[in-house]
Specification:
The chain is elongated. It is mainly alpha-helical. About 80% of the residues lie in helices and about 0% in strands. It is built from 11 helices and no strands. It has 2 domains: about 1-40; about 45-245, Tetracycline Repressor, domain 2.
C-alpha cells in the first residue's frame, strides 16, 4: 500500500514538473512571438546604448566640438533622424554620453578596488584602465567639454570628485595602515590635491599635447605623488614597478 501511494505521488510530481516545463516553453515562445511581431518594444534600449557607445568613441577620439550628429549617424550606419528620436539635441547626447562613460569608468575602478591589491599597484591598475578606455585623452575631451558645454562639465566634475575622493582617501588610508605611506601624511589634503592636479593635467593650455603626451604626464605625476608620501617600503615597491615597466 505504501509503495502504491509512493508511486502515485511520484506520478503526480512528474506530471506537475512536465506541466511547468511546458508552461515555460510556451512563455518563451510567446515572448519570441511578440518580439518578432513588435521589435520596436524591445529595441529602443539596445539602440540607445549603441548610439552612446559609438558617440563616446568619436567624442574621445576627435573631441566634443568637432564631432557632428552626421558623423555619429555615419559611424553607426543609421539615419540622423533615428538618433534624434532618442536624443532631441546634440547637447542632450553629449550629456548622456558623459554620464554613460562616467558610470562605466566608475564601475571599472570599483572592480579594481574590490581586488584589494597593494595600494601602489592599485593606483597603477586604475591608471592603466582609465587610459585605455579614455583613449589616452588624446583629443582633450575634458577641455572641450569645459569650453563648449560648461554646465555638463561642472556636473561631471562634481560626480568625479565624489568618486575619486572616496577612492583616493581609501587608498591613502590603506597605504598608511600597510606601511607603504607615511603615517604623518594629511589624507584629506592629499586626496583633494590629487584630484585637482589630475584635472590640471588634462588642460592643454597648461600641458600642450604636442609637448606632453597624457601617458607621460600620468606616469610622471604618479611617481611624483607616490614618492612624496611613501615610506622606504613604498619607495621600494614603486621602484620595482618602474623597473618592470622599463624592461617591458
Amino acid at each position: 500500500m505504501i509503495l502504491v501511494a509512493s508511486n502515485k505521488n511520484s506520478a503526480i510530481i512528474d506530471t506537475y514538473t512536465t506541466s511547468l516545463l511546458n508552461i515555460n516553453k510556451l512563455l518563451k515562445l510567446w515572448k519570441l512571438y511578440w518580439f518578432l511581431k513588435f521589435p520596436i518594444v524591445h529595441l529602443p534600449p539596445i539602440m540607445r546604448d549603441k548610439i552612446l557607445i559609438n558617440a563616446a568613441d568619436l567624442f574621445l577620439n576627435y573631441g566634443f566640438k568637432s564631432v557632428t550628429m552626421d558623423d555619429i549617424a555615419n559611424k553607426i550606419g543609421m539615419s540622423k533622424k533615428t538618433i534624434y528620436q532618442h536624443f532631441d539635441t546634440k547637447t542632450k547626447l553629449v550629456e548622456a554620453t558623459t554620464l554613460y562613460m562616467f558610470e562605466f569608468i566608475s564601475h571599472g575602478i570599483d572592480c579594481i578596488c574590490a581586488l584589494n591589491k597593494n595600494p601602489i599597484d592599485e593606483i597603477y591598475e586604475i591608471k592603466k584602465f582609465t587610459m585605455k578606455h579614455l583613449k589616452d585623452d588624446k583629443s582633450s575631451p575634458q577641455h572641450q567639454l569645459q569650453k563648449y558645454y560648461p554646465k555638463i562639465f561642472e556636473k561631471l566634475k562634481t560626480n568625479q570628485f565624489c568618486i575619486m575622493q572616496d577612492c583616493v582617501t581609501n587608498n591613502l588610508a590603506r597605504g598608511v595602515a600597510e606601511g607603504y605611506y607615511r603615517k604623518s601624511i594629511n589624507i584629506e589634503f592629499i586626496s583633494r590635491l590629487y584630484f585637482n592636479t589630475m584635472m590640471c593635467l588634462k588642460d592643454p593650455d597648461l600641458f600642450p599635447l604636442n609637448d606632453f603626451s597624457m601617458r607621460i604626464l600620468m606616469d610622471n605625476f604618479l611617481e611624483y605623488h607616490i614618492r612624496g608620501i611613501s615610506t622606504e617600503k613604498g619607495i621600494d615597491k614603486l621602484n620595482s614597478i618602474i623597473n618592470s615597466k622599463q624592461k617591458n
